[in-house]
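Let's study a protein:

===
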Amino acid sequence: MTFSPPPFLSRFAPLAAAVLLWGGATPAAAAERPNLIFVLSDDLAQGDVGAYGQELIQTPNMDRLCAGGTRYMSAYTGTSVCAPARSSFFTGLHMGHCPTRANREIGAEGQRPLPEGQVTVAEILQSSGYRTATVGKWGMGMFDTSGSPFKTGIDRFFGYNCQRHAHRYFPDYLYDNETRVELPENADGQQGTYAQDLIQNAALSFVSDAAAADEPFFLFYAATLPHGKFEIDDQGIYADKPWSELEKNYAAMVTRLDHDLGELVGLLEEKGVAENTLIVFAGDNGSSFNPNTPIGKRFDQAMGGTLRGYKRGMYEGALRQAAFAYWPGTIPSGRVTDEPWAFWDLLPTFAELADAELPEDYETDGESLVGFLKGGPAPQRDYFYWELHEYGPGPMQAIRWDDWKAVRPVASGPVELYNLSKDLGEKDDLSDERPELVEKAVAMMNAARTAHPDWPDPATAEPPKRRRN
């Protein structure tokens, strides 16, 4: 392999020399470092997956991977909307420190970019000799900004840069790297080419090329399914169900995601690299549907009322994700664990597996999950912290430590307190009974966040004039 140092490599100077030496490593030495795939599904509810109890939507491939790997009951997102959730993964930071703590649109196309100089998981892996790619939805900065995929460690990109554009499954165009690829067959509302077809082909092509080159690779598969606009080119087995069109489309979108994941795993097996590839799968922020709506009830997305809340909230139904890890021969098969972890743990995890070092001055909020993935206990930590800056309720917060969870659901509002070991549905607010724990939670929330002019303190922010549903 010929290694060309990317422009940000000065931050990784000690590692650069090691990478240059590794370029001459034997294939056996290279094979010791696994390929890394993170599949992020957009707005998938934990209850949408068969392995989590879904009975109407078919997800045979996810169910098989859960049976052959480890399923996590307490896998937490970075926060409960798209851009900050994926930014938390990409930076290894929770919402108290992450540069992106809300969805914020920039101009006609694109979102608030990751800032100049931000360390990312892709940079770390690229600097360690990994071939890197993102397919699907980016949402962390247009190509002419500091948040461009190509300024943050990505070699190959295909899909939507702007997450607002990604609401269309029959778009007028997609991006192949930085080149805009027109799709005239979708003009004027026509449904000629389903975007997921092209995104899946790009993912398979990247994996096939990397496997043929015998190079370790990192793939961030940021699937748009099953986020709205709820469009599908084929309702398949659901076409004749006595359901609404929305329900049939949604079910078909989840099953299409499942099919494409199965196809990806099949390719890994065909290329002989499945046993040297870690796949981590997760939803990004819970369902976009209130569980009390007809579709939420149809598919029991709240899992019999087990979880409260959905996207844009701070309750468990928004923060806990359908998640599993699959790595045959390394990750225990059939394991189900309730020990918690969060998206910001993946950066140090992937770095350790890649034998890569973080820049000396970079502090991640995450803990490596390598031992946990392989069957050991989850790493110990003081707390998990979230915040979100919404236009309706204003900034909100949540923090979990041990079995306790504190939630401030609206700006400057009171703090609620729940014991998750006895009340996973967060129905019994114990704040009046345990004021000392509320005080402890507030102190931890204050310590967990770094002040930022764009992200006001949820404890003192101006109360909202309206509340978003």
Residues 383 and 402 are 7 Å apart (CA to CA). Residues 27-373 form a domain with the Alkaline Phosphatase, subunit A fold (CATH 3.40.720.10).
